[in-house]
Amino acid sequence: MLLAAAALMLPACHKKLDYDYSRWYVDPYAAEAGRPISVMSFNLRAAHIDADENRWDNRRPAVKAMLRDKSPVLMGSQECDYLQREHILADDPRYGAIGVGIGGPTEECEEDIIFYIKDSIEVLSSGTFYLTPTPDMPSKMGQTNHYRVCTWARVKLKADGRQLYHFNTHLDTNESIQAPEMEVILSKVIAINTDNLPVFLTADWNCEENSTIFSGIKGGGFKSARHEAAVGDSYKTFNGFGKYGAQTLDHCWYKGFEGVNRFATIRDKYAGVPYISDHYPIEIVLKF
Q1: Is residue 102 part of a domain?
Q2: Per-residue pLDDT of the chain (288 residues; tens, 9 = 90+)
Q3: Is residue 56 part of a domain?
Q4: Distance between CA atoms of 221 and 55, rounded to whole angstroms?
Q5: SS (H, E, C) 31-60
Q6: 2 within a domain of the structure (yes/no)
Q7: In which domain, by residue range, is 265 found?
Q8: Whole-angstrom Cα distance, residue 135 to residue 188?
Q9: What is the full DSSP assignment across the chain?
Q10: How many CA atoms lie within 13 A of 145 on its CB side?
């Protein structure tokens, strides 16, 4: 009788155990669609500038170690001269490079290079334009002695075929021409990214993120990776080798991604070198 009574109670007991098995199920395609990518912006400090303890020969092992540690799929570099480009490619053969010398292939020629991991990235198209009213021909603003360019690339992730644009640049130190330079960049981004693919911009902008020069890009729907990151920091990115006042000059703007998982100012010490550059690299993990 006791067994019979227990048997009669079983349906009621079973009904209470109403498990939701969906929490143990993971859609592999959904996971793939949300896979983030790690990218970076890094002002290398051109090799020909310093002859003291901060010279490139001393910092080169630290850059090599940093890239091995962080392994960004895409890295927008500024002040990367021809010698540094060749050294980085030799030190880490995983990487290829996109970009041209502003004034020709000499060791002193700055290049706004985009480095990419060849096993992960297929370059579909790329180019360089000048931050002037005549962007498609070598030119510079009258108020500066420097050529300023923007290097861009349309790339495909080999793992799943997703495509995106990366724009990388270096604004002038003359604040009076930064706004016109930004207007050129925004107009070219719109003209080049006609498919409205996810896009991000890296640079040494030579100004803080609250500058009014960014009003146009904000109005165009771009967001700050630093401000939108789920996990991030607000460290100063320009360190001046510890000799000059720190500033936050390196930023990443993005559009068309779901969000930013992480933003990090890389202040780690590598290869026993106090400063990897006069700028800290910034690392951004973008989520599709």
Answers
A1: yes
A2: 555 555 544 444 444 344 443 344 444 444 445 589 999 999 999 998 999 999 999 999 999 999 999 999 999 999 998 899 999 999 999 999 999 877 644 444 567 999 999 999 999 999 999 999 999 988 888 888 788 999 999 999 999 999 999 999 999 999 999 999 999 999 999 999 999 999 999 999 999 999 999 999 999 999 999 999 999 999 999 999 999 889 999 999 999 999 999 999 999 999 999 999 999 999 999 999
A3: yes
A4: 40
A5: HHHCCEEEEEEEECCCCCCCCCCCCHHHHH
A6: no
A7: 34-287
A8: 9
A9: -HHHHHHHHHHHHHHH----GGGG---HHHHHHT-EEEEEEEE---TTT--STTSHHHHHHHHHHHHHHH--SEEEEESEEHHHHHHHHHH-TTEEEE---SS-SSTT-EE-PEEEETTTEEEEEEEEEESSSSTTSS---TT-SS--EEEEEEEEETTT--EEEEEEEE--S-GGGHHHHHHHHHHHHHHH-TT---EEEEEE-SS-TT-GGGHHHHHTT-EEHHHH-SB-----SB-GGGTS--B--EEEEEESSSEEEEEEE----BTTBS-SSSB--EEEEEE-
A10: 0
For the question of whether the overall pTM of this predicted structure is more than 0.85, the answer is: yes
- Counting the structural domains of the chain, the total is 1
Q: Is the residue at 182 inside a domain? A: yes
Which CATH number fits the domain that encloses residue 137?
Answer: 3.60.10.10
